[in-house]
Amino acid sequence: MTVDLYSVKILEELQQAAIQLDNGQADLLAEQVIQSNKVFLAGAGRSGLMAKAFAMRLMHMGIDSYVIGETITPNVTENDLLIIGSGSGETKSLLSMAEKARSLQASVAAVTIFPESSIGQLANIVVKLSGSPKDKSEGHYSTIQPMGSLFEQTLLLFFDAIILRLMEKKGYDSTTMFGRHANLE
């Protein structure tokens, strides 16, 4: 197969994943983002990169957002939200963060393939995304892509769709967002 045909197949997989999103859970997450004082993002590996991209867009909206592990990340309080992107929902470091956030009465949202996972069970809000686990022996969702690629791509698309929903709720447009774009580049 050629690169262009691989790209078409990936887009088809992403379209199927998008169709399966639960709008109710997505709207709950968007509302929780609006109601929270600060929003914290966490993920491991490529999922963590998608979380960072989402944190940046939240910042462009004027929402106090932070990536767990960065040196400027403040403390979590009961008025805050921790959003964890984890395909498996079992990554030990992320599970530990969810447990700590809950012990501090912060809200926790999990975006995962497995709502019944340990992180999913701790979360106040769980958004199920399509994807294939890294371990194909679990045989969850068929994809031509390696490892967790479909989940990670779907995670980025989901986060971008949440941004569009938040922009709609707040009456923002790209000009509003660009006003907070980095200007020391």
From TrEMBL:
Q: Which GO terms describe its molecular function?
A: carbohydrate derivative binding; isomerase activity
Where does the SIS domain start and stop, copy by copy? 29-172
Q: Which domain of life is it from?
A: Bacteria
Q: Which Pfam families match?
A: SIS
Q: Which PROSITE patterns match?
A: SIS
Q: Which GO terms describe its biological process?
A: carbohydrate derivative metabolic process
Question: Where, by residue number, does the polypeptide cross the bilayer?
Answer: none
Keywords from UniProt, A to Z, are:
Isomerase
Family to which this protein belongs: Belongs to the SIS family. PHI subfamily.
Task: Please name the PANTHER family in this protein's record.
Answer: 3-HEXULOSE-6-PHOSPHATE ISOMERASE
The protein here is known as 6-phospho-3-hexuloisomerase
Species of the source:
Paenibacillus herberti
